[in-house]
């Protein structure tokens, strides 16, 4: 399987399939399809947050995430965050989430950030396997979560998908 990533602004045609995927995977949050589309449209930015990213499997949109100012309603000085990390359930554990995280770290570095944060209740193995450091455990909405951090150092190797 060929995995590629790109900025959502360069692939606006993926908004509808990604909105459907968001609604299927997070029905409590996206009961209204317009809300999923609206969130994706708000990420159609090039050099500012929120910045949407999309992953492709053999040319088909199969996942997404965004660089955001905050996450989960947290009030913190930490920024930016990876939010809305989503992969088609039939394509999980094939490298799409890792590719999205790699692209997110590169984009955050291009925007001048030294660190990137993530909040998760379930994806501990993913973040750990990608070298992110677990820096804090918190409870959010009655559920245990962890905050992860990626230090953004080294060369930037973004190869835009066009």
UniProtKB/TrEMBL annotation:
Any one GO molecular-function label of the UniProt entry: acyltransferase activity, transferring groups other than amino-acyl groups
Top-level division of the source organism's lineage: Bacteria
InterPro entries: Acyl_CoA_acyltransferase (IPR016181), GNAT_dom (IPR000182)
Keywords: Transferase
Pfam families: Acetyltransf_1
Keyword Amino-acid biosynthesis: no
SUPFAM superfamilies: Acyl-CoA N-acyltransferases (Nat) (SSF55729)
Signal peptide extent: none
Domain N-acetyltransferase span(s) in chain numbering: 4-154
Name of protein: N-acetylglutamate synthase-like GNAT family acetyltransferase
UniProt source species: Devosia subaequoris
Upper classification of the organism: Bacteria, Pseudomonadati, Pseudomonadota, Alphaproteobacteria, Hyphomicrobiales
